[in-house]
Amino acid sequence: MSEERPAQAGSAQAGSAQAAQAGSARAGSSQAGSESGSAQAGPRPAGGAPELVVLRLARPYLNRLISAGLLAAVTEFAALALMATATWLLMAAAGQPPLDRLTVAIVAVRALAVSRGVLRYTERLAGHDAVLRLVTDVRTRVFATLAARRGAPPRTGDALSRLVSDVEAVQDLLLRVVVPGAAAGLVSVLAVGLTALVSPSAALVLAGGLLVAGVALPALATALTRRAAAEVAPLRGALAADAVDLTHGAADLAAFGATGAALDAAQRRARRLARLERRLAVRGFAVDAAGVLVAGLTAGAVVFVALRAGVGGVLVGVLAVGTLSAVEIALALVGAARQWTALRAGLARVAPLITDTAEQAPGTPATSTDAPKTDAGPAITDGGRTGVEERTPPEPAPAALTTPSGDRGGTPDLRFDQVTVRYRSGAPAALDTFDLDLPAGRRVAVVGPSGAGKSTLAAVLTGAVRPDGGRVTLDGRDLGTYPPEDLPAVVGGLLAEAYVFHATVRENLLLGRPGADELALFAAAEAAGLADWVRDQPDGWDTVVGEEGAQLSGGQRQRLALARALLAAPAVLVLDEPTEGLDPVAADEVLAGALAAVPAGRSVLLISHRLSGLAGLDEIVVLDAGRIIQRGRHAELIATPGWYRDQWTLQQAAEHGYLAVSG
Amino acid sequence: MNRRPFDPRLLRQVPAARGDLALLAFLGVLAAGLVVAQATALATLLASAFTGELNRPALAGFVAAVAARSLLVWAQGTVSARLAATVKAALRADLLGAVARHGPGWVAGQRAGQLATLAGRGLDALDAYFTGYLPQLVLSVTVPVAVLGRIVFADWSSALIIALTLPLIPIFGALLGWQAQAATERQWRRLSRLGGHFLDMVAGLPTLRAFGRAKAQTDAVRRMADGHRVATMKTLRIAFLSALVLELVATLSVALVAVPVGIRLLGGGLTLQVALLVLLLTPEAYLPLRAAGSRFHASMEGLTALDEAFTLTGAAPAPTTRTGALPDGLGEIRFESVTVAYQRTVALRDVSLTIRPGERVAIIGPSGAGKSTLLGLLLGFVTPTRGRVTVGGVDLAEADLDGWRRQVAWVPQRAHLFAASLADNIRLGVPEASASAVDKAVTDAALDDVIAALPDGLDTLLGERGHGLSSGQRQRVALARAFLRDTPVVLLDEPTARLDAAAEAAVLTATHRLVAGRTALLVAHRPALLADADRILRVDDGRVTELTPQPTGEGR
């Protein structure tokens, strides 16, 4: 009495179309992704095939993985043995022997029947446990690699979710390909060996059937799945683009009378895709059909050969039933092969992210724990839910963290000396021989039209971009010589695209200065105009701001980011568009509050496209196309013809005109 | 979840699927018959092998049954994949067709994103449902019936036990079971998607770096990932346990059948052939039920997509195809006591105004006051809740909308650019336009310098949603569309919003050229745009008041 394995049976039959789908989805995204940074991965990462990279990383969990694989093999074998023993039992019983000759078999059948389920339960738990431990490592490593890289991490939501699913490809590789594959291989070898004890010729037949089911068919399935994915992916991508155009562009299409044509094109494509999918299914399911055929034919051939070889009748029955089970187990490799094909693109993308740190930190847990242990307290944790005890830092932040902000050496003098930045050779310079002096305590604004080089300036200051020419110095020391972890304490603040974490308001703010006390928090929030909102929340500082800060309005996000920068209070505070997303009145208030909150003696570099509220600054620098076209104080600049005065007039008219009209 | 395994709306809404569905059911019946045939042949073969003899007819029968099953697996796969493809194509056509029929007003907002996802990749989730779950669902009905039918004739007492224990699978499944398993499975997916906020951390890396916290955070990532692992294992333990119970129920049921069979066989009360048949067939009766149950969750995504598609296409108002009178674009535009009420807000209240041919009217007012609704009315995207809008005396609500729109050019706040060549984007309203006409529109829209800088010029392919062009460049493409259309009426919706000074200047010049000599409605918030206006209307809280034209551009 036996049943087959529901999970594998499922993937074997449904596999072809599903795997084709997954494969094409991943292939499609890999096309889109290759331009966004994973290009350097190439088809072959440094560490060899991506599968090997994963397996190398799995070394600490090898024992767990091997025991999971063995358990899986034992489970499969128990299913086979159950069926074989039950057949033996019945056929032996037909000879009407004394009952005691059957006792062992009866006990074996009962034991196998119960243990099979229990074994499967243990195997699944062991496998998932091992793999999830590995995935924890993978996540940590991927993060560490991305953190160490100077370049920007993937920014679009699409690329991000792809990163997450790529990490999961590691999980699927082990759980759905390696473990079941190894188990099927092991059981196959065992089945052939046991059959050989009974009849070598029958064993030969079985081996042949198993080779077809476990090697030839999976290889065929791999090839077919890969080709299907390659054919389907571009069409699916195009159809997705059509859907976007027809929905998001519905108004444009309707207004210009072009809806009909666009709809026809999309429907033609949908029909073409349907035709292609039908054609591919005919090929793909042929593999599954062949699997059924191989199982039956092998069983028939085994019966034939065994009878010819004079094997006893009872054992022939056992061999026949065992063969059916064994081939079915080997057929699980077809599903595994499809899975593997679908996973390859994701694995190829994730492998370089794992290998980068592999050399530098062979014992990641050990090396990474001692350094950050001291300031691990205020780290952003799990949305304030699992990390309750970690939310308020129990130990005071180490003094080293707060000292660079001025208590020790005071504010350094920042100097830009003929700084030139060119993103591509031959392209116009984003920043062209830029000179700026920011002695301690000075407050300077950099303004200019979009694309003038303002954000490049901020990127140079934070070390994200190295100048191609000239240098940036702090008290004469080149900015490039600062370790990336230390620089933010000296130069930093609110940069473009400030991110609000899915965590409490407190945790988000403490990121700026770990260990800051309640008073400092309130002072920063007050200056950024966030304090009232915090007081209104039932949970106050412990209000969890939703995913990507979704519970916050755009204005509140900006205030939170600003408060965080003010709390960080680096010696040279950089504020990149601090009032973005605020209405004019609020923007003026917040900017004034923020500037007032910066202690005298600290330097401020304000980057803004808005010219309101700059009257109190020591100097205003107007950038255009990477060059300084005007500089001076606000009062001087509005008295002089030029970009600043024109823009000032325009902005004033727009804001005040607008206010007057709508007020 | 209230999901039934099969959505009957499928039969109604996709008639093309009926044939294949019936075929699939028929194949399921055949498959059940073949399961029985194969087991019968094998039992006969082995029973004679017991005596050391090769039963050639039985072997041939077994091989034939296997071959037929193999063909059937292929047919089931092919038919179910064909069904999936048919349904997906039909639903895609329905969904996108609904967009075309109901117009932009219906699609606006969140629905657009939902539709795009669904009609794009969302429906592909149906593959798993149709090729994986549905055939199994059919088998879970046909196979137990066939097995019972066969065993009743061979050994009725075994059949009775099977009939009594079989319902235990769905009962235990429901008790423990499939729903809970599906729920935990979903939760597991969600958990892993969040990846212990791994995503959050990666997305926020620039910010972490900006505060020098990136490396320190690595440890937090490890701790969170580890916590996530522990939570996941807890969930899995329960999910796997329910699978274990179901497996034990099935195994013990089979044992209940097999033990008496063995005892009777030992006592000589049963032939070996019947005993083998019962042994081979009984597990087959329980298997499809469990397989269908365990695959149910995998098919959920497909069922959800299906439900969404039916809800979206079903809830839409009946389309109105109109072939009414053709309004004259050179006629007078009149709003007569027009009120537009949306679900929660009233966009316009009792608005009456007249726009004479050739008049350039600027519309100002705070955002959300109803400015865009005025334009939407004229485009036919919005219909008045009360009152009417007439053009040359023809009520737009009954007019030939396509014909009217041919006389209108529209420059929206943020024009949608299509994943096509730049030239095709400009030709949107006039697909047959000559190259020289396109060139002229390009020059008029001050787009020529942009195109000169592009490697492939007008043939440059734009990415999805016009990826690759700046906001200012997009607006100029929208203006080029309008120039090429060369219509008596132009509607501009804040064409210079979100532009920096340089881009604004270029767009302003082009706008100036566009409105000259046409009837123009111009939603404006920048003073520079008001310079062209003959009249200025102020919209506030749904009411329209006329302002006397005044010199603007200076702050007041």
From TrEMBL, chain A:
Residues 68-345 form the ABC transmembrane type-1 domain. The keyword ATP-binding applies. Keywords: ATP-binding, Membrane, Nucleotide-binding, Transmembrane, Transmembrane helix. It is found in: Cell membrane. Residues 1-46, 358-413 are annotated as: Disordered. The keyword Cytoplasm does not apply. It is a multi-pass membrane protein. InterPro entries: AAA+_ATPase (IPR003593), ABC1_TM_dom (IPR011527), ABC1_TM_sf (IPR036640), ABC_CydC/D (IPR014223), ABC_transporter-like_ATP-bd (IPR003439), ABC_transporter-like_CS (IPR017871), P-loop_NTPase (IPR027417), Type_1_exporter (IPR039421). SUPFAM superfamilies: ABC transporter transmembrane region, P-loop containing nucleoside triphosphate hydrolases. It holds the Pfam family ABC_tran. Residues 414-650 form the ABC transporter domain. It comes from the Bacteria. Its main location: membrane. The chain crosses the membrane at residues 65-90, 173-197, 203-224, 280-307, 313-334. Residues 7-46 have a biased composition (Low complexity). This is ATP-binding cassette, subfamily C, CydC. It comes from Micromonospora gifhornensis.
TrEMBL record, chain B:
Residues 22-301 form the ABC transmembrane type-1 domain. Residues 333-555 form the ABC transporter domain. SMART domains: AAA (SM00382). It is found in: Cell membrane. The keyword DNA damage does not apply. It comes from Micromonospora gifhornensis. Its main location: membrane. NCBIfam families: CydD. The chain crosses the membrane at residues 21-46, 58-75, 133-153, 159-180, 238-259. This is ATP-binding cassette, subfamily C, CydD. InterPro entries: AAA+_ATPase (IPR003593), ABC1_TM_dom (IPR011527), ABC1_TM_sf (IPR036640), ABC_transporter-like_ATP-bd (IPR003439), ABC_transporter-like_CS (IPR017871), ABC_transptr_CydD (IPR014216), P-loop_NTPase (IPR027417), Type_1_exporter (IPR039421). It holds the Pfam family ABC_tran. It is a multi-pass membrane protein. PANTHER family: ATP-BINDING CASSETTE SUB-FAMILY B, COMPONENT LINKED WITH THE ASSEMBLY OF CYTOCHROME' TRANSPORT TRANSMEMBRANE ATP-BINDING PROTEIN ABC TRANSPORTER CYDD-RELATED. The lineage of its organism: Bacteria, Bacillati, Actinomycetota, Actinomycetes, Micromonosporales. Keywords: ATP-binding, Membrane, Nucleotide-binding, Transmembrane, Transmembrane helix.
